[in-house]
């Protein structure tokens, strides 16, 4: 089945412009590896960006802008945003995510964070948003929570039911401080996803708050 839930224009444009943080770029690039539709959108965003630069009058480049562009180029940069690579057939975790994890699904060392929930924190030095792999046993309910910032989720295996949507392999959910939700893993298969969060989640309810230090998300 093809991907139904895509990355937003905002996210894709920041990715194409290279202004997105590395953790979020990793999620976008991994989605692109699974989604021909967004690879085409990304190519278009790249082309438009290039044309905009070419269309700038020469005068604009000579006073003010050019030195600032050069300063940007000289600035020591963080790691370049990950580049999507199309997956080969029987690999569950596509590149570039697989390289960040050091292998495909079978080689991963999960840490239990709550009953029926396991995670792997992906260490990205100097990056504030945090990337983690999450594995929910099928049917597991995630405690209701809202967000202090943006949360991106990319489903890699199994399914995740969030509000009225059922997300499957390749699908992306993007939530912000306005969203309060209580997703749960679909039946049949464990749900494995890549999640990128800007700031700690705010859990609702006493039990959920008690669980938060355990979940560390
Ligand atoms: Zn897409």
Give the second-level CATH assignment, the architecture of the domain at 102-215: Sandwich
Q: Taking strands numbered 1, 2, ... along the chain, how are they ordered across the largest sheet?
A: 1-2-3-11-5-8
Number of strands: 12
Please describe the biggest sheet, giving its number of strands, its sense, and whether it closes into a barrel.
6 strands, antiparallel
- How many individual helices? 6
The level-1 CATH class of the domain at 102-215? Mainly Beta
Calculate the mean pLDDT score and round it. 80
Strand content: 15-25%
* Shape summary: globular
CATH topology of the domain at 102-215: Jelly Rolls
Give unreliable regions as ranges.
none
Structure, explained:
The protein has 217 residues and is an alpha+beta fold. It has a domain at 102-215: Jelly Rolls (Sandwich). The chain has 6 helices and 12 strands. The strands form 3 sheets. The protein has a 6-stranded antiparallel beta sheet with strand order 1-2-3-11-5-8, with helices on both faces. Strands 9-4-12 form a 3-stranded antiparallel beta sheet. A hairpin with a 2-residue loop joins strand 6 and strand 7 (165-167). It is globular, with a radius of gyration of 19 Å. The relative contact order is 0.16. Bound molecules: zinc ion. Residues 3, 6-7, 31, 35, 37-38 line the site of zinc ion (ZN). Residues 10-39 form the Putative zinc-finger domain. Residues 106-196 form the ChrR-like cupin domain. InterPro entries: Anti-sigma_ChrR (IPR012807), Anti_sigma_zinc_sf (IPR041916), ChrR-like_cupin_dom (IPR025979), RmlC-like_jellyroll (IPR014710), RmlC_Cupin_sf (IPR011051), Znf_put (IPR027383).
């Amino acid at each position: 089945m093809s991907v139904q839930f895509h990355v937003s224009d905002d996210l894709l444009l920041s990715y194409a412009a290279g202004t997105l943080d590395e953790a979020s770029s990793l999620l976008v690039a991994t989605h692109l590896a699974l989604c021909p539709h967004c690879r085409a959108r990304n190519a278009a965003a790249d082309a438009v960006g290039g044309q905009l630069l070419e269309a700038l009058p020469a005068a604009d480049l000579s006073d003010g802008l050019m030195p600032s562009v050069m300063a940007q180029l000289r600035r020591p940069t963080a790691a370049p945003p990950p580049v999507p690579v199309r997956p080969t057939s029987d690999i569950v975790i596509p590149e570039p995510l697989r390289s960040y994890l050091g292998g495909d699904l079978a080689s991963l060392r999960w840490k239990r964070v709550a009953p029926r929930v396991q995670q792997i924190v992906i260490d990205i030095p100097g990056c504030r948003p945090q990337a983690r792999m999450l594995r929910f046993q099928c049917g597991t309910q995630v405690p209701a929570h809202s967000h202090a910032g943006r949360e991106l989720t990319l489903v890699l295996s199994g399914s995740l039911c969030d509000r009225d949507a059922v997300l499957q392999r390749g699908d992306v959910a993007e939530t912000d401080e306005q969203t309060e939700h209580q997703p749960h893993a679909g039946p049949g298969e464990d749900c494995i996803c890549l999640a990128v969060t800007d700031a700690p989640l705010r859990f609702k309810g006493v039990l959920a708050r008690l669980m938060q230090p355990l979940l560390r998300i």
